[in-house]
Design the sequence.
C-alpha cells in the first residue's frame, strides 16, 4: 500500500510544482533548489519551502529525507538555490530534526515551522 505522503508527493511533483515553479524563488516560502542528477548528470529544479538561516537556508521536508533531490544534493555536496529573488550556491547539505533547525530561524518563521508538524529539515550553507 502506498502511503498518503507518497501519493501527495507524486501529485505535487506532477501538478502543483508545475503551477508554482514560475513564482518560486520570488515569493516568501516558495523557492527553488537546483541540483544535478546522480546518474543522469541532468540539472533539475525542485520547488520547496525555504527559510533563511544565519549561514544559509533551511528547507522543510514534508515527504521525509529520502527524496531523490536530497540524495542528489548530498552526492554533489551542494547545489544552487533561488531564494527571495536571488540565486546562490549552497553546500554542506545535512538533514536535521526540525526542532534543531528552529534555533536558526527568525520570528515568524520559527513559529510557522514549529507548528507545521514536519519531522525533518534540510540545512544548506551558503557557499563562499
Sequence:
Amino acid at each position: 500500500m502506498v502511503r498518503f505522503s507518497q501519493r501527495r508527493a507524486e501529485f505535487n511533483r506532477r501538478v502543483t510544482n508545475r503551477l508554482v515553479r514560475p513564482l518560486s524563488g520570488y515569493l516568501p516560502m516558495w523557492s527553488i533548489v537546483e541540483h544535478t542528477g546522480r546518474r543522469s548528470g541532468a540539472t533539475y529544479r525542485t520547488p520547496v519551502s525555504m527559510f533563511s538561516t544565519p549561514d544559509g537556508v533551511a528547507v522543510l521536508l514534508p515527504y521525509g529525507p529520502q527524496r531523490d533531490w536530497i540524495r542528489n544534493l548530498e552526492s554533489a555536496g551542494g547545489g544552487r538555490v533561488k531564494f527571495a529573488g536571488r540565486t546562490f550556491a549552497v553546500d554542506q547539505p545535512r538533514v536535521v530534526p526540525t526542532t534543531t533547525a528552529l534555533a536558526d530561524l527568525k520570528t515568524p518563521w520559527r513559529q510557522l515551522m514549529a507548528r507545521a508538524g514536519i519531522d525533518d529539515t534540510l540545512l544548506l550553507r551558503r557557499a563562499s
User: Anything to note?
Assistant: Residues 4-20 form the longest helix (17 residues). The mean pLDDT is 85. The chain has one domain: 4-126. Strands lie at 30-36, 43-53, 56-60, 78-83, 86-97, 120-126.
